[in-house]
Amino acid sequence: MELLTVEGLHTYYGEIAALRGVSLHVGEGEIVALLGSNGAGKTTTLRTISGLQRPRRGTVSFGGADITRARAHAIVAQGLGHVPEGRRIFPALTVEENLNMGGYLSRRDHAVLAARKQRVFDLFPRLGERRRQLGGLLSGGEQQMLAVGRALMNEPRLLALDEPSLGLSPVLVKAVGEVIKAIRASGTAILMVEQNARQALALADRAYVLETGRIVLEGPAAELARDPRVQHAYLGGSAEEAAPN
User: Fold this and answer.
1) Closest Cα to residue 162, out of 33, 1, 73?
2) For the chain, which has fewer Cβ within 10 Å, the N-terminal or C-terminal residue?
3) Is the CB of residue 177 less than 8 Å from the CB of residue 168?
4) What is the pLDDT of residues 154-188, one digit of tens each?
């Protein structure tokens, strides 16, 4: 069953077209990767879906409801979480305070808020150890954990991840991959923008490739990993090297 359906999105910055008719979908519990070079429109796609950017044309449906013109906070309340590129945590707030901000919609139910924080700490034990540390004093990897944890505080049905492994060491990149698997195992669908195409295709069920605001390729992740065009542009290796395990 389709959870998210995007049809014919055209999004502009002033008179510059960033998206030119983007259509995609994400099913319940599915991991979908969105690949493309810098400036292809990947971040704009997520921002438009999340209500942070308005499209000129096209529709976004989530859980059967049209959210094209909904405000960002209303979209979050419907169960669509967004982890932006660059993490965007609150550096002057503690880890726990950052998580409380993520759970703002449940702020009056202290038991629910506490249970959700504990689930985040179970997923990221490092954050539990640093719960009273300021976000700005965390390492890059810990800040990424916090950004994901904050989005999970509303128990989203779908999580949009923008470059979750950007700037992280290979060890942390692998750890992020394991977290993504765990989030999906809990029933949350994921739409993931990722420059690390090899990791993205290894994790995803399906993938789309964006070029200059248009979807130019789509299909099962394993098939795209073997596509010579994807190998040449994003993987830099042979089909055998690129294929997901």
Assistant:
1) 33
2) C
3) no
4) 899 999 999 888 878 888 888 889 989 999 999 99
Q: Are the C-beta atoms of 26 and 3 separated by less than 8 Å?
A: yes
Report angle CA 154, 63, 183 to the nearest 5 degrees: 45
* Helix, strand, or coil (residue 181): helix
Q: Which two tokens stand for residue 30?
A: 């599915």
> What beta strand segments (E) does 110-230 contain?
158-162, 189-193, 206-211, 214-220
Single out the residue of 168, 131, 162 nearest to residue 146, CA to CA.
131
Q: What residues in the chain have per-residue pLDDT under 70?
A: 236-245
CA distance 185 to 227: 28
CATH code assigned to 2-87+156-242? 3.40.50.300
Both tokens assigned to 227: 């596509």
* Residue 218: closest CA among 25, 17, 2: 25
Domain range annotation of the chain: 2-87+156-242
Return the pLDDT at 236.
66
Summarize the chain as % helix, strand, coil (round to 5): 40, 30, 30
Determine the pLDDT at residue 184.
94
| Residue position matching structure tokens 């990424």 | 144
Q: How far apart are the C-alpha atoms of 100 and 179, rounded to whole Å?
A: 21
Q: What angle do CA 120, 87, 58 make, to 5 degrees?
A: 100
Residue 209 pairs in a beta bridge with 35, 217
CA–CA separation, 70 vs 173, rounded Å? 33
Q: What is the pLDDT of residue 238?
A: 43
